[in-house]
Task: structure prediction
Amino acid sequence: MLLVTGGAGFIGSNFVLSTIAETGETVVNLDKLTYAGNLRNLDSLGEDRRHAFVHGDICDREVVRKLLSKHKPRAGAPGGRRPVRRANFKRRHRRGHGTRAAGSRPGRSLPHERRWANHLV
Result:
């Protein structure tokens, strides 16, 4: 099982669709559904059991903790990227620290958090 963050955007949804089609691997898709996220990008999956969508923010430790505890992904991948400007701390914080939120606290991580954080695709 893979964890994909931002998997409802253009790049992320194509990654999710191609991963499921080519490998048959189950994907847990975590997306905040902001300006770029659109669940219609994933309509072709229908009720496919290989796809689980979780509406949430990667920076929300409690959401990530519950997701990792429930699904136990073997690896994770950021689904999409947007340009990062040095002057925009919030954007840089969200992209740089959010993706690693689960494994950035050595010694205080859940068992699956540390394993996931060390296997970003």
Observations:
- Residues 2-117 form a domain with the Rossmann fold fold (CATH 3.40.50.720).
- The first helix runs from residue 10 to 23.
